[in-house]
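Subject line: Sequence and fold of a protein, written as structure tokens
Area: Proteins and the way their chains fold up in space.
Start of record: The labelled sequence and token lines come straight after this line.
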Amino acid sequence: MPPEAGGPDGPHYIRAIADEAHLDELLSEPSQQVVDTLERLDGDILVLGAGGKMGPTLARMARRAADQAGSTRRVIGVSRFASGAQEAALHTHGVETIRCDLLDQDAVGRLPVAPNVVFMAGRKFGSTGAESLTWAMNCLVPAAVCRRFEASRIVAFSTGNVYGLTPAGRGGSRETDVPAPVGEYAMSCLGRERVFEHFSLTRGTRVAILRLNYAVEMRYGILVDLAQRVLAGQPIDLAMGYVNVIWQADANRMALCALAQAASPPLVVNLAGTDELSVRVVTESLARALGRPASFTGVESPDALLSNGARGWSLLGPPRVDVARLIEWTADWTGRGLPTIGKPTHFESRAGDF
């Protein structure tokens, strides 16, 4: 049985992450709340977009939780799977896979119907200059998915970018705030939400929309970006001076728990860490751990892309790993030169250009 936060063997007690296998084990470790949730829910789980940054470990977490709950349900990952090694790794851990281009509506129509669907597909990076593809991925694909799975519970990932910038020091944007997306990527993400909302209101589809801001692990995320710049001796631009981060395993766990909260009209909930972080302070902490100096350019703007995660914590459980541990893990991983996926987050973009 995996330990809960506060237990002597909880993940926050691990001082360093050995390698990628250890990392993926931690990222896919279910909490007891996930196990209990899946015990209450019937049916298979379909993860759409299982080949992305979060999809593989979320699918593995679902499989592990189902096994601990004594369930024989299928967990199926759906993606184009550009990496055969990634698909093979899922098979090794008991996750079935289906190759599918979700932009092909006929192919979506042939997917097996499952009572539980986690929608993780979408397009962000590369949007600038290819806006039409971004809109197609973020709005047309959800419509095809809603038609195919209108009787399912759907947990749909969205982003805190739909809020736009909010004054720092006030706790971040809440789910009741009026969206104010900046840039076409954020606009298309609000479009994605509206498509799910439309099908939920007109067909009764049970939906939970998760506005994520931002998931981190040792190979990707804002903390990795900052640590790599410190190591390279590059200055940190402070214009986006404040951020939220959440351990990816906590985001995975909250998403699976949200299956039980899917509703019509949709539940909308932020997935965010418990702290509003200063980029300057976090960078200085990483620099001390790495034994390198930190340098900065510019000054902090009075607003930033910030989300208030309180509703998510109350409904889906609080994060198990705190920021101090994430900084420690990131500095150790980066300092040892362990692998990253090589994709900067561009968190500093204030104009919504990705």
